[in-house]
Amino acid sequence: IDSKDKKIAELKDSYLKCLADMENLRERTRKEVEHTAQFAIQKFAKDLLNTVDVLHLALTSIPAEVRNDTQNNPHFVNLYNGISLTESELLNILKKYGIEKTNPLGEKFDPNIHEAVYQANVPDKESGIVFDVQKVGYTLFGRIIRPPQVGVSS
């Protein structure tokens, strides 16, 4: 009887361990599926960021004095407003899906999250500070999908 009780205890222990392993597997699988669904749009989002850059470039190419001159340049004003609305709507949609803009101007350079494009000696900045942002960066739920391209003081 003792050997049977011992065998029953071993089988019960083995059974409980198996149940725990299965529950852990289910939880891990659930997290992986959730993670995969969350980052499924990463490639599409990364491709779309070039469009955001082009819209921003178009906005900055229109001189400030022309942007509000409805008297002499009503077409430029309308064009600027249309592009501005398109850019803001696109950024709102990206934000809705977890894509955030990162602008590290004035922050300490971190090679893990920034991409240094160049380094320059800037008299009023301490060494290792981002003083110029060539392209802003973007994150998807906190994961970097495009690092900001920056100039760093030396």
UniProtKB/TrEMBL annotation:
For molecular function, the Gene Ontology terms on record are: adenyl-nucleotide exchange factor activity; protein homodimerization activity; protein-folding chaperone binding; unfolded protein binding
InterPro entries documented for this protein: GrpE, GrpE_CC, GrpE_head
Q: GO terms for CC?
A: PAM complex, Tim23 associated import motor
Where on the tree of life does the source sit, at the highest rank? Answer: Eukaryota
Q: Which GO terms of type biological process are on file?
A: protein folding; protein import into mitochondrial matrix
Record Pfam families: GrpE (PF01025)
Q: For this UniProt record, give its keywords in alphabetical order, as a comma-separated list.
A: Chaperone
Entry's CDD domains?
GrpE
Please state where this protein is localized: Mitochondrion matrix
Chief location of this protein?
A: mitochondrion
Identify its protein family: Belongs to the GrpE family.
Q: What is this protein called?
A: GrpE protein homolog, mitochondrial
- What organism does the UniProt record list as the source? Glomus cerebriforme
